[in-house]
Amino acid sequence: MPTVRVATWNVRDLLGDPFALRRVLRSLQADVVCLQEAPRRPGGGWRTSRLAQDAGLRYAGGGRPSGGTALLLGPHVGVRSLAAARLPVRGSFTRTRGLVVAELAVVSGPAAGVALTVACLHLPLEPELRVRHARLAATALARRPGPYVVCADVNEPPGGPAWQVLTSLAADPAPDAAATFPAGREDVRLDAVLVGAGLRVVRHGSGEVERADVLAATDHLPVVADLEAVAAGAPPGT
User: pTM surpassing 0.85?
Assistant: First the structure.
């Protein structure tokens, strides 16, 4: 069956090696890429757009309007609707947070006709606020048609309260997946692609990337999932 490749990756404000960042993004060969800690200051949209272009992708939305989450798309994926919004944080100097929610459809290639709604988010460090943001994201996603995919840096280990909120809409298809942070000495799984009913995960992992490039680029490993459409109501899984 034709698949749609979805990836999520925290790129640490593009502070790492820019050439390594591009090489990793190219090697992921993803149709949908959700970034956390994308540039969020004035002029950041240009930097994200240039990164996307250099990686053979296009910048669909997010960045400054969403507090640092951004959506990149491959040439076969079209946008039916997209909303980027900031989520509330405490204090003027706290890192901005937000989400991008997009209804997408594969418009060409072997997987043409597959539709999905993707949420890209980066949850905060404070436990109570993290759960609040997860609930806001789940509400925004539930207003749109499925099947749902959540791409997130959850900022807590699996099974925590925020994971429980998000997995009420999109299940964790790989609960035994490897840790993703900090890159180079991973000891906790913070990053995930969660998948709702109507999609099945065929392959899951960090992608066929050069580990040295990942370490030079940022402090998180990417997460990649190849998805195929299944009958409505079928559970996600590998």
Answer: yes
